[in-house]
């Protein structure tokens, strides 16, 4: 599973 | 964006709006924990610090939502601690917020994805949000009751992160996206609402008021 470091959730 | 996250954010917005309306209409913050609202304001500011650092034009709803959350929570604190200070139930709002802030800050320095300032602040915000509702639940247990409108606020506030858990399940399954820190903190946060959810569904939905066995 890739960890998306970009915070795209509030 | 998926349906769970959409309804989660809407539920969160609803919670903030319900609380603001309750305080503004009744011109009273009785039964509302000022400490919880302060902790939420700290959560939003530390989580959305990027808004202040490199201010990008308000080109998408995400930026607007972040600004709404920050301004609404700060305004709520203003109403509680300044405008309607006389109705603030200080002696029942007595949980030590330091006991929540210090461990969250310590844990954020120990367990995080990346040891850099923004990431640590974000992680602190996630850990703090998980326990931020405790002073509010503590206040209700001390006063032994909750106004119906405050119960609706708590239900919306609790539902927001519960819906986010469904969002994370969805994203794990379809986007193989995992953010362990947010998931673990979100589960802890939602668990803290369990007994309130039980009371809400068995009482408030039937039109009764929540009265805790004193």
TrEMBL record, chain B:
Entries under InterPro entries matching the protein: ER_ret_rcpt
Localization (cell): Cytoplasmic vesicle, COPI-coated vesicle membrane; Endoplasmic reticulum membrane
Membrane topology per record: Multi-pass membrane protein
UniProt keyword annotations, A-Z: Cytoplasmic vesicle, Endoplasmic reticulum, ER-Golgi transport, Membrane, Protein transport, Receptor, Transmembrane, Transmembrane helix, Transport
Pfam families (alphabetical): ER_lumen_recept
Record field: transmembrane: 36-55, 67-84, 96-115, 121-140, 182-201
Assigned GO CC terms: COPI-coated vesicle membrane; endoplasmic reticulum membrane
GO BP annotations listed: protein retention in ER lumen; protein transport; vesicle-mediated transport
A single GO molecular function term of this UniProt record: ER retention sequence binding
PANTHER family: ER LUMEN PROTEIN RETAINING RECEPTOR (PTHR10585)
Family: Belongs to the ERD2 family.
Protein name (record): ER lumen protein-retaining receptor
Organism of this sequence: Oikopleura dioica (Tunicate)
Organism lineage: Eukaryota, Metazoa, Chordata, Tunicata, Appendicularia
């Amino acid at each position: 599973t890739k960890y998306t470091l970009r915070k795209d959730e509030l | 964006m998926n349906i769970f996250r959409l309804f989660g954010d809407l539920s969160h917005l609803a919670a903030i709006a319900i609380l603001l309306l309750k305080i503004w209409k009744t011109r009273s913050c009785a039964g509302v924990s000022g400490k919880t609202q302060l902790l939420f304001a700290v959560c939003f500011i530390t989580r959305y610090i990027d808004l202040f650092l490199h201010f990008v034009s308000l080109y998408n709803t995400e930026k607007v939502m972040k600004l709404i959350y920050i301004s609404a929570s700060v305004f709520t604190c203003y109403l509680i601690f300044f405008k309607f200070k006389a109705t603030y139930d200080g002696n029942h709002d007595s949980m030590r917020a330091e006991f929540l802030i210090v461990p969250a800050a310590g844990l954020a320095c120990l367990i995080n994805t990346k040891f850099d300032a923004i990431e640590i602040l974000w992680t602190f915000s996630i850990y703090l949000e998980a326990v931020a509702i405790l002073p509010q639940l503590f206040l209700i247990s001390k006063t032994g009751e909750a106004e119906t409108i405050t119960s609706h606020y708590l239900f919306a506030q609790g539902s927001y992160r519960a819906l986010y858990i469904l969002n994370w399940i969805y994203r794990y399954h379809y986007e193989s996206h995992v953010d362990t820190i947010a998931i673990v903190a979100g589960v802890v946060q939602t668990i803290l609402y369990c007994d309130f959810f039980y009371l809400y569904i068995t009482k408030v939905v039937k039109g009764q008021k929540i009265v805790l066995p004193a």
